[in-house]
């Protein structure tokens, strides 16, 4: 699909822009470079279902090895480029890469991690480096002189072939690497476009702020060529000021962000630096999304279609269709997935509305398991083959689903189950609060004591007592307000 999309694209159509340098690349250029890279992989000896690692900023070269790997049935693992030697050792141990693509500044760190594992892995630097082969020299040395029309992709079963290895830990626990097949990607990624009406290009320009290791960036890297839209990304750090400049200069009409980063962009005194009116479609998800945040964005841009999305790496992206659901809901079921809510302690299915239960899923987008981790894979599914999300939801009588909290994140105060998300949703309503995170500290008498970490808005003075009084005023939280911890951190800025 990718190869056909590149070949069918109009002449000189832009695929990608690096907003840090204004460097641009067309579909034709990406076709030529990605097929040469695939040829180079073959000449280097990489085979079907080998693994490559990509760990670099979102520059123009980043996706070329990704596309080349997918043509050949080679697995792609995006890895955080800020990891140190010990963390990289864990990442490489999990996927055993045959090649690592990184920046020259990380070559020595990568080599140290590979040496510890005694791996003979090719290191290719996207920029020039005296200690290893650069990407441009790699293409020249191994890429051959064949034209893109001469290139033949590998033949393999998309159901069986693994496409991506994506690091995930949910919200808690040690990192794991989820295996996503080509079938998972083809079935899962297009669903984020359900509210669009234009074909084949539902958007003109997409803004990418997620790093390579996040599935939200992979979505745009894959769907851009297939749906024929241009994307603007950046090889510079995605500070609020830089993102403002990207929006003001390139005028994207589609973006996908976490609620924490969006809240930073909308900080009073800073938001005026950016003209958000160009945006037509906006996805926000990855953690709890406050209703007030959505309303604030819609007030700034009344024409914006904004969707609160709930997704799982293990489900290859979004799990619900949020196009026509209430603003506080994460959406309604999609027709290709099966859903049920169960009591996480008894495993009994919940068939009544407005009753909390763990979400469990079946369907063609559910992942293939955790790479080289059969124990965690087995633990992720119940005895009937349902994937256990670990997230607590309830649904209304119209089958709109509402996120409550991660099961593992629930606090136990005496005999009460306390949701950090529920407390956060109360505190965030305070006009002086920019953002908040709630967790717990162990207490011998009570079990867990909730702790609120609050970032105030500039110009507002709020105290710990203000926050306690706000929580105390909510009937549902009354049982624990007298014991809420007095630990309270305030930062005046990010």
TrEMBL record:
One of its GO terms (cellular component) is peroxisome. Residues 20-370 form the AMP-dependent synthetase/ligase domain. This is Jg13709 protein. It comes from the Eukaryota. PANTHER family: AMP-BINDING DOMAIN-CONTAINING PROTEIN-RELATED, LONG-CHAIN-FATTY-ACID--COA LIGASE. Residues 422-481 form the AMP-binding enzyme C-terminal domain. Keywords: Ligase, Peroxisome. One of its GO terms (molecular function) is CoA-ligase activity. The keyword Ligase applies. It holds the Pfam family AMP-binding_C. SUPFAM superfamilies: Acetyl-CoA synthetase-like. The gene is jg13709. It is found in: Peroxisome. Its main location: other. InterPro entries: AMP-bd_C (IPR025110), AMP-bd_C_sf (IPR045851), AMP-binding_CS (IPR020845), AMP-dep_synth/lig_dom (IPR000873), ANL_N_sf (IPR042099). Belongs to the ATP-dependent AMP-binding enzyme family. The keyword Ligase applies.
């Amino acid at each position: 699909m990718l190869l056909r999309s590149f070949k069918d694209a109009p002449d000189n159509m832009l695929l990608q822009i690096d907003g840090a340098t204004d460097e641009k690349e067309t579909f034709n250029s990406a076709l030529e470079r990605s097929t040469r890279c695939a040829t180079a992989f073959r000449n280097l000896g990489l085979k079907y279902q080998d693994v490559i690692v990509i760990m670099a900023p979102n520059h123009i070269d980043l996706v070329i090895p990704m596309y080349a790997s997918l043509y050949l049935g080679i697995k792609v693992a995006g890895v955080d480029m800020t990891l140190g030697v010990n963390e990289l050792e864990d990442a490489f141990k999990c996927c055993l890469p045959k090649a690592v693509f990184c920046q020259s500044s990380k070559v020595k760190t990568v080599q140290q991690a590979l040496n510890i594992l005694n791996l003979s892995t090719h290191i290719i630097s996207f920029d020039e480096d005296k200690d290893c082969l650069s990407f441009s020299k790699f293409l020249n040395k191994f890429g051959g002189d064949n034209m893109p029309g001469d290139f033949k992709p590998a033949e393999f079963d998309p159901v069986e072939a693994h496409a991506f290895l994506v690091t995930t830990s949910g919200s808690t626990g040690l990192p794991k690497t989820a295996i996503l097949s080509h079938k998972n990607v083809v079935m899962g990624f297009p669903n984020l476009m359900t509210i669009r009406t234009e074909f084949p290009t539902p958007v003109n320009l997409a803004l990418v702020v997620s790093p390579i290791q996040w599935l939200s960036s992979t979505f745009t890297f894959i769907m851009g060529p297939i749906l024929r839209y241009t994307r603007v990304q950046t090889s510079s750090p995605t500070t609020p000021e830089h993102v403002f400049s990207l929006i003001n200069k390139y005028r994207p009409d589609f973006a996908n962000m976490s609620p924490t980063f969006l809240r930073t962009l909308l900080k009073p005194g800073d938001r005026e630096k950016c003209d958000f009116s160009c945006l037509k479609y906006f996805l926000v998800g990855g953690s709890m999304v406050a209703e007030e945040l959505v309303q604030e964005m819609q007030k700034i841009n009344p024409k914006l279609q904004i969707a609160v999305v709930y997704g799982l790496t293990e489900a290859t992206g979004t799990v619900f269709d949020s196009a026509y659901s209430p603003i506080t809901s994460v959406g309604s079921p999609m027709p290709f997935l099966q859903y049920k809510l169960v009591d996480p302690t008894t495993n009994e299915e919940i068939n009544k509305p407005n009753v909390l239960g763990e979400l469990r899923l079946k369907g063609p987008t559910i992942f293939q398991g955790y790479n080289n981790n059969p124990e965690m894979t087995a633990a992720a599914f119940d005895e009937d083959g349902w994937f256990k999300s670990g997230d607590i939801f309830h649904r209304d009588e119209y089958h709109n689903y509402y996120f409550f909290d991660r099961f593992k994140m629930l606090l136990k105060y005496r005999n009460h189950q306390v949701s950090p998300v529920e407390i956060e949703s109360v505190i965030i309503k305070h006009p002086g609060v920019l953002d908040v995170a709630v967790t717990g500290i162990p207490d011998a008498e009570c079990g867990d004591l909730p702790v609120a970490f609050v970032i105030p808005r500039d110009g507002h003075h709020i105290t710990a007592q203000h926050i306690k009084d706000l929580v105390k005023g909510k009937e549902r939280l009354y049982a624990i307000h007298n014991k809420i911890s007095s630990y309270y951190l305030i930062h005046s800025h990010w």
